[in-house]
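Figure caption, in words: inputs first, then the predicted bound structure.
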Amino acid sequence: MSGCLSSHLPVPQSNPAPLTWIRPRSGERCRVIDWTCGCRSVVYELCSAGGQFFIRRTVQGANRTVAETSRGREGETRKLWTALLTGRAR
Ligand SMILES: [Zn+2]
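Bound structure (zinc ion present):
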């Protein structure tokens, strides 16, 4: 089944770098720069807020949970994002 426009995460490589997920800050506005496809139960978004960058992970469903990485510079966070999308981090 195709028709999806956004990326899907591949199966992770054998030893993906573990990302550290923390509780999201509440009530903060952020700009979503890139995202993975919403057809999956877990959606990842590359976000920026206040000049800093982070990745947000949303587990969809009845027990929707949101977590995010710590803030970083754009270059570092884009590297993590690329690693996530290529199965080198999870
Ligand atoms: Zn999809």
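The chain has a mean pLDDT of 94.
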